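Much of what follows relies on a compact textual record of a protein's fold. Each token is a code from a learned vocabulary of local backbone shapes. The record below shows the convention in full.
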Amino acid sequence: MDYIASEKGDTAENRDPNSVVSNGASKASCIENKSSVDCDKLNSIAPVDSAPCTSVKPQETELCDIPEQIEFTVIFNKNKHDITFAYDATVLELKAHLERICAVPQSAQKLIIKGMAKDDMTLRKAGVVKGGKVMLVGSKMDDILAVKSAPKEILEEKNSSHSSKEPLCMQKIHQKVLDKGIPPDVMAGLKGVKEPLPPTPLSGMLNKHGGKVRLTFKPEQDQLWIGTKERTEKLAMTSIKSITSEPIKEHEEYHIMGLQLGPTEASRYWIYWVPAQYIEAIKDAVLGVWQFF
């Protein structure tokens, strides 16, 4: 009996389903082992072909579509504007951008980079460099309208100056300064001679109030410094629209010189007793780069 019972118990039919299996392991262990084997198989299979897009972030893909940018400074009158713009954009597109910033109409703008830039040129071709300067020459719409609606007395003054052949030195507004005579410390003047600007400032001259004036030229900064006892005014060369000069009667070795700083002749800054030999050099230093306009 013991033998028969023992034989039956060894058969598969009499075994407890939750007991051992033929290899001596439990079903749970078998399942775990199977899972482990499957996992090992999965881990042992290396991905053969990975899609190249999975290694590139969407943001990086978008950056590739952004055009190359260039940073530079636009100088208009006494103001500087830091600009970042597409390097292959046209000068005309830059003008449209500057119209919103500087309030200068596109049609009234001139951009000086390496000479006057043409509208159809790209910034790259025009010679814009990183950290470089671009000069904007033009008048704001308010200034243009102001010229068209200038006060009656300004228009009368302008018309009278054109119609009158009276020399500047004979006009009343200049005589009150000239009547003081030649300043004792003014630089020596030479009639009929043209000389380059000296390395030192031009000094000893007078303004319309009779105060001493000193002119210092800063070509590396594109500036003209007008110094008086009270202050030094640093003017961008591009802010000077024109220069008028005329010899002083009976003292032709000296000139009266007017720097036009605004849209009308009423904005002229008058300087008296300017040595005649430096007049052309002054005009070249201030206006020379714009002569091809």
Remarks:
- The mean pLDDT is 77.
- DSSP finds nine helices and eleven strands in the chain.
- The longest helix spans residues 27-44.
- The domain at 69-143 is CATH 3.10.20.90 (Ubiquitin-like (UB roll)).
